[in-house]
Structures are given as structure tokens and as C-alpha cells.
Amino acid sequence: MSISPLQVEPIATFHAEVNITRRKRFTPEEVAERCAKTIIEISDDANPVIKAQARAFRRQLLKTLEFYISEAVQSDRTAVYNALTDAGHPELANHIRRL
Predict the structure, then answer these.
(1) What is the pTM of this model?
(2) Which of 8, 16, 66, 93 measures 20 to 30 Å from 80, CA to CA?
């Protein structure tokens, strides 16, 4: 018995999105939203039940991403604070801590 190989047609679509800010940073929530949309893309013509499940899963993923991105930001600020303090710049370190 032989099994024929699965034929898969390449996807010919390309999607690009540009996000910019003016004189501000992206918030952890904004970054998490972009990340969740990239991880879970929901087709407009998907089955409504599957679409609802995907949206619910994306909302849960968004909360998780927001939490861990915020933790990463705080961890990085702590590292910068410690480096500035160790380098003899306590006043600058305190500015970083208050961000």
C-alpha cells in the first residue's frame, strides 16, 4: 500500500503593519495587543463558533502577555537603576526608578 504525498498550495498573501508613536513609548498593553494579533490571526470567513473561541483565547493570551511584558519592563528598569547606582550616579538612578 502506498500513500500519496499531501499537496499544499503556497499562500500568496502578505500582510504588513506599521505602528508609530510621536514622542512617547509603546505601552506594555500596546505591545501585547500587537503580539496577540500576530500570534492569533482570526479569519473573517472562519466558522462563527471557532471565531468566538479564537477571540476568547486571544483575550486570555493578551492578559498573560501584558503581565509578562510589564514584568520585563520593570526588570530592565531595575537593572538600569542598579547599573547607574553602581557607577556612582544615584540621582540619575532615582529618575529611572520613578519612571
Answers:
(1) 0.72
(2) 66
